[in-house]
Every structure is written in C-alpha cells, then in structure tokens.
From TrEMBL:
The keyword Transmembrane helix applies. The chain crosses the membrane at residues 7-31, 51-73, 85-107, 113-134. This is DUF3995 domain-containing protein. It comes from Pseudoalteromonas luteoviolacea. Keywords: Membrane, Transmembrane, Transmembrane helix.
Length: 143
C-alpha cells in the first residue's frame, strides 16, 4: 500500500523545486511574484550570481526531500535515515508555516496575503510529511 501522505509531500516538494527553477529561468518577475523579496529580484536583474546559487540550493534540497518522500511512499528504494529525514523535513515545513509572523519583518514588501497563503502551503506540506512519517513508522513497527 502506497503512503498517500508522502506521495502528496513528494509531488509538492517537486513542484516547489520546479517553481524555484522557474525563478532562475524567468528572473526578477518570478522572484517578486513568489516572494523572494525586492533585494533578490534586483540582484537577479543585475545579473548577480547569488540569487541563482541560493535558488539552486533550495531547489536541490526540495528535490532531495521529494526523493525521500517517494522512498517513504514505497515508490523508490528505501533510503538510509528515512524516518529521521521525513520527520526533520516535516519540522522545517511546519516551522516555516508557523514562524511567518517572525519572518515577515525581514521581507516588508510582501503582503499579508502572501504570508498567509505561503504559510498555509508550508503547513500543508509539513503535515503531509508528518502524517506520512507517522504512517511509515506504524507500518514498520507492525511488520
């Protein structure tokens, strides 16, 4: 039986990684739309390397997390430290989702709507990792 929570988490992580790569390809307007902040958008417009490198690191992390979610869902082979990684990723996403009031002042140009929507998305993905990790834990305990 496939772990539907981790499948959702994987697809969500891959979609987020893909959108981050879109920021690299389409530049400043995408950085602005997706809330990277005016500073990142202006650096992208100026042809600086920092936005590209930062975004590549984030896209890479999201992709690796997606692969771990696929592993937990039973789609790809079992990876080492699977449950630990799944729960750590859940904490990262949930942490981002609930910490937005503290992060908002760092990006004053982003609207409250942006923070609310992006935080709800992060919470949803984080809960998918957490619930999928719990399901994985129960399956392994009962085996």
């Amino acid at each position: 039986m496939k772990n539907k929570y981790l499948l959702f988490a994987a697809y969500s992580s891959f979609l987020a990684a893909f959108l981050h790569l879109g920021c690299i390809i389409f530049g400043a307007p995408w950085y602005r739309f997706f809330g990277a902040g005016e500073h990142m958008a202006k650096m992208a417009e100026a042809g600086k390397l920092e936005p590209t490198l930062t975004t590549l690191v984030i896209a890479s992390a999201l992709s690796v997390w997606g692969i771990f979610a696929l592993s937990g869902a039973g789609v790809v082979r079992r990876l080492p430290f699977l449950r630990t990684v799944i729960f750590m990723v859940a904490l990262v996403f949930i942490g981002r989702g609930v910490a937005f009031p503290f992060i908002m002042p760092l990006f004053p140009e982003n609207s409250f709507t942006f923070w609310l929507v992006s935080s709800l998305i992060c919470l949803s993905i984080g809960m998918s990792y957490a619930l999928g990790g719990w399901q994985l834990h129960k399956q392994q305990t009962n085996s």
